[in-house]
């Protein structure tokens, strides 16, 4: 059996099987005995080390129960001796003692390979904390000893990434600094080595008030006195990323002969990893070496790197003696380009803030390949230097799944598939987020994925944070946000507050109370900075994780006013569109919009319909926002404004949602006419989806509000709604009295209202097989509709008359009538009634024996019914069509 404490407490059988050691407190008893190998440990000492100051009243009895269980698990190796308890195992069976033995024999790689994480993971009594400090210090010393040996063996290039990380973690450790300076010098990066010396010299002075040690000063002097010699092949690329997946399309765009390539994308999307992965795969294409520099354009802790500093570093790498480097920046540019002339090199300019930081670092002649990464699109490089743009987006779902699965492991994924899927969803395809989640899951193999998923659900940005500032998602986003102008920052934050899945230009203008002409360039700059993207021409969206960050930056005082402007933008724009779609529909009276709101004035019916198609999801969410903000009048008005679009498009589910939301606002309304209107429309919506009992309930209540109002208009509407609801239930006997009642009220009103009432009466007579009684009502309605130019009314009534003609045996008249109605419905985009008329004309063709025409019209009707979510009707008609065979 083998034991381990350099990580979580473990015991494994000889064949590698993990032994169940019980709970953590019981494991801590074993851990003390493992540390004290060969020395009996008294019970009192065990109690003190296992519990510290928190020992329970019966600690000794509890300890004995732990020892008894451990003896059953481990067997005879756990024994009691006169001086206490001990484990009779060989020291090499315990990783801690094996580590010390290997260090003493200078077998450092083997010693360090025994470490699996933080020693005594999860144990926090004072004794374990002290032991942990001792062991971590021993590991650190072994790491430094190994680094010294590897430097002597010439492994400086491979060591540099870890040495840089170690120097950042231990900024005041002179031995670490000496190793990094030595490695940089051996790699030909003497200028950077000198910078590192200057860094620790300043830190030691500021933090401790001392100078560097004599040995470090002597190393510095050697660097200063050594004559600079040209290195033929600088190799400055950092190590390739340890894990990399997918990105085949982006890799194909990176070409060694491309001249200049700009890789652009949101912070954390993996631009540098992509470039380094590609570069290491193509090293043979650059025989004269590779230059790499981090321009710190969006560094969360430091200012962008000055161009002069970058030039100096590159000149040193190219072998230019210090004495030849001019003070003038333009002279340095010239010297840099002279040294590059005729060479085939790769130059990676990482994390550029803009084109002006990059242009001086471009070669003067073809031959070298330059790859620039930036969160901005670097339009200057594209326009003036013919750069190729690689626009890096978040990972597709399949690739994100592969990345996280490889890090988490197949077993953990299979054990918690739902939690794994939720982790993926929270990361939203962003490689940095995936890497943070994978690292957190990997550092705690005992932690259920569901716990991490719960944390992400509770506070996603807080959970996507590491101890390293540069790897914190919030700090990555903050550095991009700080680069924005005040106007850009305001628009970015307000867009994140918008409730829809995306945002049009005019909506953005209303949000920030700016003319569209002013907002357009702001949107372009935000898109160039990769903080927003166009998912369709003129429509912008923000990545989910960026949106969370932006929302944290909002000013509560301006938020409410901005969102009121947005709600009114959607309300008045929808009203304008509805008026074009249904010009004869009496409009509701609206109070003035919020100042700064900029509604869309649609040019024609086609433009209005296209706008509603594009904005529908945003309008529905704006209504939900209005409800949350207590804007009860706006809630029902938005539902009303959408009704024509919903009816004609067959959007029954959406129609029900917006009217149910309006129904919740009824108690907050004071006008009985408005309350009756809301109840009437929700009654229609219930009836259309077959919820007839609920429909009758709210329509009966609507009639009560209408009677309280007392106007002919409101009473007519209420009776019309009840008649339609009875009709949908097939109860024509109860529908007709309400239809005749609404006709008596509506004849006193607008002619179109009268025509609607007439057609409903005629249609109900027809459904009751009283065709001769119904025809005059429909003919009178048709005459009114034609005289006022109401195309929708004309089509609906023509359909009614065609139905009557069919049942009176006048099939030719029926076909002509249906064809006329179908033509108008197509023209008006009224797909709901179009589906009904297509079914009706199919009935007539069936009576005529024209099965080909039946099939054509019924199949089109079935397709429309399915698109509209009218599945029951689609299934019924499909069954009827199948029976034709």
- The largest sheet has its strands arranged as 6-7-8-5-9
Low-confidence stretches: 228-232
Radius of gyration based on Cα positions:
38 Å
Question: How much beta, percentage-wise?
Answer: 5-15%
How many distinct helices? 42
How many E-type strands?
12
Whole-number average pLDDT? 89
- Helix percent reads 55-70%
Question: Termini distance?
Answer: 76 Å
**Overall spatial form:** elongated
Overview of this structure, please?
The strands form four sheets. A five-stranded parallel beta sheet has the order 6-7-8-5-9, sandwiched between helices. A three-stranded antiparallel beta sheet has the order 10-12-11. A two-stranded antiparallel ribbon has the order 1-2. A hairpin with a 5-residue loop joins β1 (2-4) and β2. α32 runs antiparallel to α33. The protein has 885 residues and is mainly alpha-helical.
């Amino acid at each position: 059996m083998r034991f381990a404490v350099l990580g979580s407490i473990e015991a494994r059988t000889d064949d590698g099987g993990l032994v169940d050691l019980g709970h953590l407190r019981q494991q801590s008893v074993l851990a003390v005995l493992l540390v004290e190998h060969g020395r009996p440990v008294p019970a009192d000492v065990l109690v003190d080390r296992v519990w510290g100051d928190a020992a329970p009243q019966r600690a000794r009895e509890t300890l004995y129960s732990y020892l008894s269980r451990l003896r059953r698990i481990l067997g005879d190796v756990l024994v009691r001796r006169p001086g206490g308890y001990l484990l009779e195992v060989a020291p090499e069976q315990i990783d801690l003692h094996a580590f010390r033995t290997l260090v003493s024999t200078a077998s450092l790689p083997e010693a360090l390979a025994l470490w699996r994480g933080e020693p005594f993971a999860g144990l926090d009594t004072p004794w374990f904390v002290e032991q942990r400090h001792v062991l971590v210090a021993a590991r650190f010393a072994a790491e430094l000893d190994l680094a010294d040996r590897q430097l002597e063996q010439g492994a400086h290039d491979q060591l540099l990434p870890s040495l840089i990380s170690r120097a950042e973690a231990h900024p005041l450790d002179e031995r670490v600094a000496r190793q990094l300076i030595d490695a940089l010098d051996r790699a030909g990066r003497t200028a950077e080595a000198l910078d590192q010396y200057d860094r620790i010299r300043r830190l030691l002075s500021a933090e401790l008030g001392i100078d560097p040690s004599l040995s470090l000063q002597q190393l510095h002097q050697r660097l200063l006195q050594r004559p600079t010699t040209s290195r033929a092949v600088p190799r400055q690329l950092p190590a390739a990323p340890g894990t990399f997946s997918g990105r085949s399309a982006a890799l194909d765009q990176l070409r060694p002969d491309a001249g200049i390539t700009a890789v652009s994308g949101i912070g954390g999307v993996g631009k540098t990893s992509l470039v380094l992965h590609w570069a290491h795969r193509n090293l043979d294409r650059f025989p004269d070496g590779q230059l790499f520099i981090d321009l710190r354009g969006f560094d969360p802790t430091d200012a962008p790197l000055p161009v002069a500093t970058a030039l100096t570093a590159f000149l040193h790498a190219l072998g230019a003696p210090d004495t030849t480097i001019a003070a003038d920046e333009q002279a340095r540019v010239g010297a840099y380009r002279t040294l590059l002339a005729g060479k085939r090199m790769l130059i990676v300019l990482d994390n550029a803030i803009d084109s002006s930081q990059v242009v001086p670092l471009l070669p003067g002649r073809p031959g070298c390949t330059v790859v620039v990464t930036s969160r901005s699109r670097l339009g200057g490089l594209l326009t003036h230097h013919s750069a190729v743009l690689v626009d890096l987006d978040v990972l597709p779902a399949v690739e994100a799944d592969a990345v996280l699965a490889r890090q988490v492991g197949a077993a953990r994924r299979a054990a918690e598939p739902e939690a794994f899927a939720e982790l993926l969803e929270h990361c939203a395809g962003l490689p940095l987020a995936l890497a943070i989640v994978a690292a957190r899951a990997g550092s705690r193999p005992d932690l259920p994925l569901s716990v991490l998923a719960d944390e992400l659900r509770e506070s996603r940005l807080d959970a996507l944070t590491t101890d390293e500032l540069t790897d914190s998602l919030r700090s990555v986003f903050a550095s991009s946000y700080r680069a924005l102008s005040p106007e850009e920052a305001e628009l970015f934050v307000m867009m994140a507050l918008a409730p829809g899945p995306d945002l049009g230009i005019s909506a953005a203008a209303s949000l920030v109370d700016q003319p569209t002409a002013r907002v357009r360039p702001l949107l372009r700059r935000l898109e160039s900075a990769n903080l927003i993207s166009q998912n369709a021409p003129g429509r912008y969206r923000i990545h989910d994780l960026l949106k969370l960050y932006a929302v944290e930056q909002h000013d509560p005082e301006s938020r409410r006013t901005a969102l009121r402007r947005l709600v009114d933008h959607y309300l008045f724009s929808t009203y304008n569109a509805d008026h074009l779609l249904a010009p004869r529909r009496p409009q509701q009276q609206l109070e003035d919009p919020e100042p700064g709101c900029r509604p869309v004035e649609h040019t024609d019916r086609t433009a209005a319909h296209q706008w509603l198609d594009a904005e529908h999801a945003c309008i529905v969410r704006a209504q939900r926002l209005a409800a949350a903000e207590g804007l009860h009048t706006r809630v029902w008005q938005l539902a009303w404004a959408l009704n024509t679009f919903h009816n004609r498009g067959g959007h029954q589910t959406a129609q029900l949602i917006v009217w149910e939301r309006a129904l919740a606002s009824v108690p907050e309304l004071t006008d009985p006419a408005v309350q009756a209107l809301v109840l009437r429309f929700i009654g229609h919506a219930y009836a259309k989806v077959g919820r007839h009992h609920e429909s009758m309930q709210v329509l009966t209540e609507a009639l009560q509000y209408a009677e309280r109002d007392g106007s002919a208009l409101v009473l007519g509407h209420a009776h019309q709604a009840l008649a339609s609801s009875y009709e949908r239930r097939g109860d024509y006997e109860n529908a007709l009295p309400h239809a005749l009642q609404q006709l008596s009220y509506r004849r006193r009103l607008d002619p179109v209202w009268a025509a609607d009432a007439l057609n409903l009466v005629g249609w109900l007579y027809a459904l009751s097989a009283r065709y001769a009684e119904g025809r005059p009502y429909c003919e009178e309605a048709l005459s009114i509709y034609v005289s006022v130019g109401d195309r929708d009314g004309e089509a609906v009534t023509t359909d009614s008359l065609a139905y009557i003609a069919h049942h009176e045996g006048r099939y030719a008249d029926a076909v002509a009538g249906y064809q006329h109605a179908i033509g108008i419905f197509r023209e008006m985009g009224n797909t709901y009634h179009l589906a009904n008329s297509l079914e009706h004309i199919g009935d007539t063709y069936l009576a005529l024996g024209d099965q080909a025409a039946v099939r054509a019209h019924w199949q089109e009707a079935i397709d429309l019914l399915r698109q509209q979510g009218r599945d029951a009707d689609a299934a019924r008609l499909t069954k009827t069509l199948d029976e034709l065979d």
